[in-house]
Amino acid sequence: MDRDSHRMGLVAATAMSVTIVVGAGLLTLPGLSYAQAGRLGHLPWLLMSVLMLPLLAVFAFFARRHPSAGGVVGYIRLSLGPQLGAASEAIVIGTFSLGLPAIAMIGATYLQQTLPGLPVAATAIGMVTIGLLFGMFGLRVSGAVQTAIATLIVLGLLGLCVGYWLHAPSDTGSDVFPLAGSGVLSADALLGVLSALPLVLFAYTGWEITAFLAEDMQDPARNLPRSIWAGFVIVTLLYVFVAWTVASAATADEGWRLAPIARLADSWLGVAGLRLTGIIATLLILANVTGAFLSTSRALFSAGRDGLLPRALAHVDQRGLPVRAMLTGWLLYVVVILVTQTSGLGVETLLQLAGQNFFVLYLLAAVGYTRLQQRTGPRLLGLAAILLVLAMMSLFSLPGILYCGALALLGLWGARRTPRDAVSG
To answer: Are residues 118 and 112 in contact, defined by beta-carbon separation less than 8 angstroms?
Structure first.
């Protein structure tokens, strides 16, 4: 993109990472991990953060070597060649096309619980439209807004947890969820911790989405990897503290499993706490959809520049903004939302098809990283990342595999039609 485009600094890039990774799932997942691991409900979050380190190191390596709007697609193209790069680009486009509308509809459904009567489809379209409007202002402005929202979200959640500890009873009792343990690290408790890992896995995905914003950052080779690591530290500390507080406060009441943050707030703030939780949920959903929209528009821009999609999508205006790519993304997401709502497919179908595709991209990036390394230490790091992703892929469903395979084949077919002098993203 144009060098004159308005760009984000390190702080805004970090905030963008945080808001893309942290979604509304944080309002429910601590309750589910508590239901499995009891008073040790924070350990799955801590363990998953440790397991993610090799994969984060892979992304940080490529972010220094090849920061571009191509994101993880550019990483794969750099390390594994143009054919797999084109296949991965098609997977990215197909995944975003279903995944972002699903995120918006899940957020709209959550808000509907707070504001009964709120139409899901119209609300989801409204969220996507807000993302478009933020994009039209440029990443420097929208990055500042995301920074403010990220700050409010983190402070709000920390405030709810700290407030609980200041008002907590001296003894929360032993009335824990039936599947949960009491907090002693026995064999059964360890099994509960391990069984909760798949539940919290998706809370640690999304780091690769930030990479598509590289060309909207100041000094991306320096700021992109720093924003990834800074965002990871912030998110991990937030996750573990929130999960620890929920696991310490929760009882066997079903409400703690389904809406733990709301129950936590209600335990010491009453009705005001429920309202505060609603505000935090709204900010989480809005920031998550907006950040994802901005990133996906850059992926469409890059696909146009690479020649996989029409070249018109690679056009930027006088400010260096990919307006055509943003408008195309907006129209695509609105159509998917309307079709999903009217056809009865359901959000779960979108997630089943697209929710696991990024693991394939993780695997290709990890393989590419390992292939580029000459020293033993980095190669072992790459192998650890590969093993981690293969373990994640054990959760794959057959429809998702077929959808991902079809996208890859389309990408390979498109690569054969792409001129050899196409600009690589």
So the answer is: yes
